[in-house]
Amino acid sequence: MNKEIKPSPVFSSRGNGKLMLSGEYLVLKGAKALSLPLKLGQSLDIYESKENGFIWEATHADGDWNTVKFNDKLTITSCTDDAFAKQLQKIIRKAIKLSPLQLADILEKRAVTHLEFMPQWGLGSSSTLLYNLSVFFKIDPYKLLQTTFKGSGYDIANAANSMAIFFLLIDDKPKSVEINFDPIFKNNIYFVYTGRKQNSKASIKGFHKRNISSEDIVKISAISTYMAVCTELTDFQELINEHEDIIGRIIDKTPVKQEHFSDFDGSIKSLGAWGGDFVMAVSKQTDEYVFDYFGNKKLNTIYKYEELVLNNPCR
User: Fold this and answer.
1) What single string gives the DSSP state of each residue in 222-256?
2) What SUPFAM superfamilies does the database record attribute to this sequence (predicted)?
3) Which stretch of DSSP H or E encloses residue 148?
4) Secondary structure (DSSP) of 252-284
């Protein structure tokens, strides 16, 4: 009995997900951020198709996600989610404008993406998509970002890197450098999904209206540097607490530990747009204590550091 031969993709790419440990918000004003590429990411495979238009099939960690069909003018002819389809259409059109490729280069093709986490987790579903499309269209992913979602671009840098990075904007241009970040107390670091998805674009828009002092930018940059070289858990926790106090004052929000986890034995830091997505919990307590604490609050998506963060090749 002959086995069915699966077609081979004519193009493949994969980008890493991301978490920003320090520098959220102020990275937009030139502060140095510390961010990590993740073991979870998103792939894009493109196959030949017998259909005249262009087909997009998206899957995620729990199975099928969205399907979009375009005709030969890149008009949406059918989709499972209208908002998803229109956003995808906009991104592809922007990419074509920046690219040496033409619309004809994606016709009679089928794109299949696989997101290795859930879209609402905020680990980089958009940035990994932009990165993979930029590789296919042979364009600068930062330019595609600025014509679509905006943002600093740190997530794009993580999509392509296998190591932690320092990231900053110099004259509004993204700069990143790989660093050997592998804390000896990583077994005391946990990442917890809070279930309160935030709109990063809306958060960025609101932040741009605020006046930020150069002193705060310098302080956050210093915290990023110290976090990267910290060798004591207690020092790391003090840096987290100071970072939370500074950002909380600037955006006029209560730090997440004070608001939701005041009795937690350890430090907790918001990651990304405050109020949702993942938080970083750091504690001297046992795994059992940490998992039970958050489990009792119905928060059961918890990763230990080494389960989520991409291994550092320098160690």
Assistant:
1) HHHHHHHH---HHHHHHHHHHHHHHHHHHHT---H
2) Ribosomal protein S5 domain 2-like
3) none
4) T---HHHHH-TT-SSEEEE-SSTTSSEEEEE-S
pTM: 0.93
Tokens in use for 84?
A: 């998803």
pLDDT per residue over 171-215, tens digit each? Answer: 999 999 999 999 999 999 999 999 875 555 555 666 666 778 999
From the list 15, 14, 21, the residue with the least C-alpha distance to 164 is 21
Greatest alpha-carbon pair distance for the chain in Å reads 72
Beta bridge partners of residue 189, listed in sequence order: 282
Tokens coding 169: 């904007």
**Residue type for position 272:** G
Cβ within 8 Å of residue 246, ≥6 positions away:
216, 219, 220, 223
Q: 3-state DSSP helix/strand/coil percent for the chain, to nearest 5?
A: 35, 25, 35
Under DSSP, the state recorded for 309 is B
- Tell me the pLDDT band of 6, cut-offs 50, 70 and 90: confident
Tell me: pLDDT of 2 over 80: no
Tokens read off for 274 = 């405050």
Which domains are present in the chain? 11-178 (3.30.230.10), 181-308 (3.30.70.890)
CB contact at 8 A, 97 and 104:
no
Alpha helix (H) residue ranges in the chain: 82-98, 125-137, 141-146, 154-160, 200-207, 214-229, 233-251, 256-260, 287-295, 305-308
